[in-house]
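Interim report, section 4.2 (structural modelling).
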Amino acid sequence: MENILQVSWIIPVLPFIAFACIGLLLHRWPKVSAAVSILSIGASFILSVLVALKVFAGDPGQVFEMSVRWLSMPGLKVNMGIMIDPLTAVMLIVVTTVALLVQIYSLGYMDKDPGFASYYAYQSVFAGSMLGLVVASNFGQIFVFWELVGMCSYLLIGFWFGKPSARDAAIKAFVTNRVGDFGFLLGILFLTIVFGTLNYSELAVKIAGYDNMAVLLPISILLFFGPMGKSAQFPLHVWLPDAMEGPTPVSALIHAATMVAAGVYLIARAFFIFSQAPQAMILIATIGGFTALFAASIALVQNDIKRILAYSTLSQLGYMVMAMGIGAMTAGMFHLMTHAFFKSLLFLGAGSVIHAMHEEQDIWKMGQLSKKMPVTTWTFVIGALALAGIPPLSGFWSKDEILLGAYAGGYTGLYILGSLVAFMTAFYMFRLIFTAFFGSNTHGHHAHESAPVMTFPLLILAVLSIIAGFVGSPFMNNIFGHYITAPGVAHHEANGMIMTISSLIAAAGIFLAWVIYQKKIVSAENLKQRFEAVYNVLYNRFYVDQVYQRLILIFVDGSARLLEWFDLNIVNGVVNGLAQFTGWSGRTLRYTEDGQVQTYALYMFAGVLIILISAMCAVFTALA
Amino acid sequence: MIGLNHYLLLSSILFGIGIYGVFSKRSAVAILMSIELMLNAVNINFVAINRFIHPGNTIGQLFAIFVIVVAAAEVSVGLALIISIYRQKKSVNLSDFNIMKW
Amino acid sequence: MSITVNDVVFVCVSGVTVLSALGVVFSRNIIHSALALILAFLGVAVTFFQLGAGFIGLVQILVYAGAISVLIIFAVMLVMNVDAARTNKANPNGWTFIWGTLLALVIIAVLGTTIMYSDLVPALGELPVADAVGALAGLMLGNYVVAFEAAAILLLVAVVGAIILARGVEEK
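Predicted structure of the assembly:
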């Protein structure tokens, strides 16, 4: 047990080995491939639990590190290594748990899909990449795995590559991520140029007393570009809703629980850099808060079950980033953990519904699913309650800690914004529940409950959604905050007033949804007509996609035209010009051949004269 | 005192006059005469330098003899050519012989 | 340093030579040019005598003033188809004329300045080689025998060539 940390490097490696085996050998036997993949992630899960037990039995500040030199160039040295501290341990648990449950669930969901084996290969390589990202000991390594995770996202979003919308969504995800990664890479290079090292521990030491804002502020902002892309903050959020084109387990794993959380994890890891640059923190908090509000408002009017959940993810990610920005790194990571559990639960539940309704995703075409799919319904409700923040479920504790951090830290505006978003969250989630699972539509009557292989993960995740919050609650003396902390993170005493207010806001949201969608006391249609302009803007997602399309048209088209002009006129001009010049010089110079002997003699003598004069000059300068 | 430079100056003046004659005359025979002037100037050069700088041998004079020989051969052949052309074109004006032009 | 007879003779003879050369190129009448050319040849011959190259001077008179000049006058007579007084006008094409003048002047100027600024042997000493002809013969039939034989062949070829060219193509 002492040496569990020494072998912790196996945790990311096992899924990669599974990927290699499936990709090279086993893809002809789908069931075997799935078994290999699940076994590898299961083993990683067990090892992660052992590692966590070891870490949480020890001192919070203890860090275990080992690495090998991977890349060595003048000015840039990148190691590949493992760094295990409490933050890493938490992420390991979250990633392996959700990945294992999603892979088990996929046995049922992706059954009879022709790409079953390659699906598991991609799941394995994703799991390996995410685990490698989490245990990374330096920025170079995290960037490598960051890109790998992005590639896996592309592969999995575009898994059903026969669908044009899926292909486009995959490309959109990759390109948008790339924009963020570009800034991230610039930040990393900046770091290595200024400080000479990329290792977290060494950098923490070097940056501790560093106060040159002109260097730290650009670095912080550039580094933040990575999370802006990966965690889909405004304005790089456009890929996440479209990423729902992928299979639902993929949405659960990647776009709810793990990959999009990588950005938040990075901010937590690099907290020692960001906390030194107050303006960057303000920027992070503002962008996070804005994204939360923006996404929640769009979710109010969406009709596709997965899109609602996607915008909900966007909104919660905004919450987490906002928490990071106001210095409540503990609260942000806590919410990341609880959100991973209940959001993946919600997505897997949605997948169960979609599967049962034969790929129907519009909530208005579902209804009264509770009658035929009880397990799915009630686990979904538990997940929604957790998301809305009803005590004593996990989401309540984490969300409340964020609001507490905003209120007690003096960010009253952000506190009000957070509360408003909490209200909207509760509202649209229960709009979804009342319309699809209860309500008066009867489309859901021909559905049937999903197979146990799919409902078992739902149950596990529901249990986790209920109990996972207690580690950050006053009941356990906030043991989470005891381990996950950093210099500069403020811990506030639990405030009963804030807790009550947030619970009431969530309940009010649920009540309003019940009034409109279940009891139909206030008609949704009337509301839609009265606020038609607002409705249209929200329904069209604030037209952000159209704006981007227009910008791309202007720039890509414009530069293509510019280059075409350049090619036709300047490059062709040079070549044609040479030819024309040759012709012109020929036409002009031929007049020297006029047939007169004396002219030729003149040319000869002129040459002789030139030689004569230059010889004379040479001789006289040599003599002088 | 008349030294080598005076002889060389004389020779260069004759040479220059010969060049002027080559470029400014119309008739082929006149041009040939100017060429003979140039060759004579060169001969003066050879003999003068031989006499002043290397009086021990007579190589300059030998070369002057060869120049005279070659000049004689050239004049005879050149005049024969001119007469032959005259038979064809009834003119010895060099400007008329410009077939080899662009 | 006193002026010797040698210097006076040189000045006179070179003056005559240059003036007759000018006469060659500036005369309108081609016969006058030919006669001026003969005078120039004679002037050059006297210069050779002054330089102690007696044999060369004799050869100059014999070959140039005797044979070549006659040949030239024969050719002039044969191709004269206009009034003799107007045969030797200047080239109407102004371009070569101007450039030729320029070239001539430049060459004279360049060479002249170079020569006058050079540090050359000033005085004409005693004639070290007494028997010039014998020395010449020794060279010709000694080290330079090949050049001598080649010159002979050249003369042969020139004679034969001139005859063929002047004879022209036979009328069929």
